[in-house]
From TrEMBL:
A biological-process GO annotation: signal transduction
Chain intervals with Basic and acidic residues compositional bias: 1-14
Protein name (database record): non-specific serine/threonine protein kinase
The organism's place on the tree of life at top rank: Eukaryota
Organism the protein comes from: Lupinus albus
Enzyme class: transferase
Keyword ATP-binding recorded: yes
Catalyzed reactions per annotation: L-seryl-[protein] + ATP = O-phospho-L-seryl-[protein] + ADP + H(+); L-threonyl-[protein] + ATP = O-phospho-L-threonyl-[protein] + ADP + H(+)
Key words, A-Z: ATP-binding, Kinase, Nucleotide-binding, Serine/threonine-protein kinase, Transferase
Gene3D superfamilies recorded: Kinase associated domain 1, KA1, Phosphorylase Kinase, domain 1, Transferase(Phosphotransferase) domain 1
């Protein structure tokens, strides 16, 4: 019998063919309620199975979650199923959340007919590739955050966000699924302080405050789980993992994880660290994530490897990067601490200036000066980096622009090796074309 999605009530239907219908679910030719043709089993859970099926009338593929009522009641999941159905109906219209079409029921089974997401779990893509590119990770992460924000705005906390519950459709877009452990605001799951109290979730994704059993904010634990997901997408493995569950929980509670060097951009490392903050009070919020520079623009690129390089990767070593707190300090002439960690001979070959200007305008100025001084200029495509070759090879240098804030940027002139005075004259000409802003 179909479920009325508007009033969220289930009506059972007793038929002589119920046993026959249920027992034939494994057959390729099985027809459910005369409407859905069952094709194959997609997955099995504690009290449910999920099948791929086709709507006979429309020819559209669907996924059907078959819940055994007896097993659900025995395991205490019967309330979860009702809540999952109600929540999925409530969140039905978001493009990155799996849609529910209808619910059918018999004496022993509940059939939840949902959107079929053909690409499978994002877990499979990560497993195949090892880790995703930063751009692809950002795309999926943006869609995840959009879905989670929509959930929270509707008073729903997912509480079990993980790679296994994130699906990819035929358009390579992310879909959030499985709301079986979700909680709703103003429900009996909240204590007097409006904090959730049920200990739930998948161990490797669980937030540290859940482990304390003192109550937790559902929105904040979802952010933590999103941080674990982003880490796994970008790196290829989970930040917290151990065969010993006690050791695993200790690592989570203490926030003991490591971001691999050289793989992630500064912006990506920063947002992951802020999401995996063990203190829920200082952990980044969904609204703050939406305003994060890496999340919005993706301008930050992996920091260059400061170790040995070849001529082939010289451009990569000079290329644009994001700036950290130490960089900000070192740009101030009164607080230049770089000599403490960088060889002084190297620092003698570099000059900096901080400007209120755009990188595009600076590069235009560099080209103008290079033309007047008869200096050969080669620019790296899509980056604000220029290589300068003086006449007769009398100097080689690089001009690099770093975006410091929306209004400020840093221009560096890097000499490849000790040179004569020609490069100094070029720098003076360049300075005269740009208004300098001093910190």
């Amino acid at each position: 019998m179909r479920k009325d999605l508007e009033n969220n009530t289930l009506r059972g239907e007793e038929t002589e063919t119920e046993t026959e219908t249920i027992s034939s679910m494994s057959k390729n030719s099985a027809i459910l309620f005369g409407k859905y043709k069952i094709h194959k089993l997609l997955g099995i859970g504690a009290s449910a199975k999920v099948y791929h099926a086709t709507n006979i009338d429309t020819g559209k593929s669907v996924a059907i979650k078959v819940v055994n009522k007896h097993k659900a009641m025995k395991s205490g999941f019967n309330t979860n199923i009702e809540r999952e159905i109600s929540i999925m109906h409530k969140l039905h219209h978001h493009p990155n959340i799996v849609k529910i079409f209808e619910v059918l029921a018999t004496k022993t089974k509940i059939y939840i007919v949902m959107e079929f997401v053909s690409g499978g779990e994002i877990f499979q893509e990560v497993s195949t590739k090892g880790h995703l590119s930063e751009d692809l990770s950002r795309k999926y992460f943006r869609q995840l955050i959009s879905a989670v924000k929509y959930c929270h705005s509707n008073g729903v906390f997912h509480r079990d966000l993980k790679l296994d519950n994130l699906l990819i459709d035929e358009n390579k877009d992310l879909k959030v699924s499985d709301f079986g452990l979700s909680a709703v605001k103003d429900s009996t799951q909240l204590n007097n302080d409006a904090l959730l109290k049920t200990v739930c979730g998948t161990p490797a994704y669980v937030a540290p405050e859940i482990l304390s059993k003192k109550g937790y904010d559902g929105a904040k634990v979802d952010v933590w789980s999103c941080g674990v997901v982003l880490f796994a997408l970008s790196v290829g493995y989970l930040p917290f993992n151990d065969y010993n569950i006690t050791v695993l929980y200790r690592k989570i509670y203490r926030g003991q994880f490591r971001l691999p060097k050289g793989l992630l951009s500064h912006g990506l490392r920063n947002i992951i660290s802020r999401m995996l903050d063990t203190n829920p009070q200082t952990r980044i919020t969904i609204d703050e994530i939406l305003q994060d520079a890496w999340f919005k623009d993706g301008e930050c690129k992996p920091k260059p490897d400061m170790g040995m390089s070849t001529k082939h990767d010289e451009w990569e070593k000079i290329t644009n990067k994001c700036l950290n707190a130490f960089d900000l300090i070192s740009f101030s002439s009164g607080l230049d601490l770089s000599s403490l960690v960088v060889n002084s001979n190297v620092m003698d070959q570099m000059e900096r200036m901080i400007l209120r200007e755009t990188c595009e305008k600076v590069m235009e100025k560099v080209e103008d000066v290079a033309k007047r001084r008869r200096v050969t200029i080669t620019k790296k495509k899509n980056d604000f980096v220029a290589k300068l070759d003086g006449q007769d090879g009398n100097f080689v240098a690089y001009v690099v622009c770093y975006q410091l804030t929306d209004e400020l940027l840093v221009v560096e002139l890097k000499r490849k090796e000790k040179q004569n005075g020609s490069i100094s004259q070029f720098w003076k000409d360049l300075r005269s074309q740009i208004i300098e802003f001093t910190l």
